[in-house]
Amino acid sequence: MLKIAFDPIYAHPLPEGHRFPMLKYELIPEQLLHEGTITQENLFSPATCSEEVITATHDVYYWHQLRDLTLPAKEIRRIGFPLSAQLIEREIRIAQGTIDGCHYAIGNGIAFNIAGGTHHAGSNWGEGFCLLNDQAIAANYLFNNNIAQSVLIVDLDVHQGNGTAQIFENEPRVFTFSMHGANNFPYRKERSSLDIDLPDSTGDEEYLNILRQTLPTLFEKQKPDFVFYLSGVDILATDKLGKLSLTKEGCKQRDRMVLELCASKGIPLQVSMGGGYSKDIKDIVEAHCNTYRIANDIYF
């Protein structure tokens, strides 16, 4: 059964002026339930991630500043959200949802987190609406519990996974692959194991050809026993922040390529949703929902 981490707190942590980007977290499960792609049985609400698990990835002092709401104003501005206890709870539930998803993926092949993909959070900083790095936390959890020995992180959000790259820069068990807009945030990039920088206005054909030439080789060389996928839909031409020019069909083919490869090799796959900032919320929700529909087609 397809298992999906979702909690109402995903959609409601912020003051009014910040809420539009969060609407998708409410609308995605509503749409999937409405059309019959999933039922309530597919959804689970994660608990909060423990401090021990968080600080296996993030600096203890940084975590305490987040937990106690004492992060300096400059660092809060870098994150882009005003800090609150509810926002911190949201982050630690997202992290636990990704960890739980790993267990479900091992049993079922794939699992999702409606939120997550907080790849701009480094070991001791938050940035770009990301406070804690859910997939990095989950990868270290797998190592520390002897569940996985080799992890591949496939980050196809339009923005480089700079926090993930920094966290794992000296970790040979993790291969970080980020394909992103060259001229997009973050403007100071970290070094992933493999970065592919795309020029503005890259469209379906070029994007998919590069991915088709890259992914199978990565899997063959790295031989991961677990894969994390960040499936941001800010690669769409309609995205206000993206600068690339993919269609929803191109985005769908991208997802199918990643999911089919993992399924064909029997490698468990955890998917976090990442970014999406199109002006029309329908474009964001439809593109994200396609990822779940493809998973149902391939796995169930």
Question: Can you offer a commentary on this structure?
Answer:
The chain is an alpha/beta fold and 300 residues long. The protein has one domain (3-299): Arginase, Chain A, CATH 3.40.800. The chain contains ten helices and eight strands. The chain has helices at residues 23-35, 51-54, 60-67, 73-79, 85-108, 134-144, 162-167, 204-222, 248-265, 281-299; strands at residues 3-5, 43-44, 110-113, 151-155, 174-181, 194-198, 226-230, 269-272. Strands 2-1-3-8-7-4-5-6 form an eight-stranded parallel beta sheet, with helices on both faces. Strand 4, helix 7 (162-167) and strand 5 form a beta-alpha-beta unit. The longest helix is centred in the first third of the chain and has 24 residues, at 85-108. The protein is globular, with a radius of gyration of 17 Å. The model has no long low-confidence stretch (mean pLDDT 95). GO terms for molecular function: histone deacetylase activity; hydrolase activity. It comes from Mucilaginibacter limnophilus.
Question: Main attributes?
Answer:
300 residues, alpha/beta, Arginase, Chain A, eight-stranded parallel β-sheet, 10 helices, globular, hydrolase activity, histone deacetylase activity
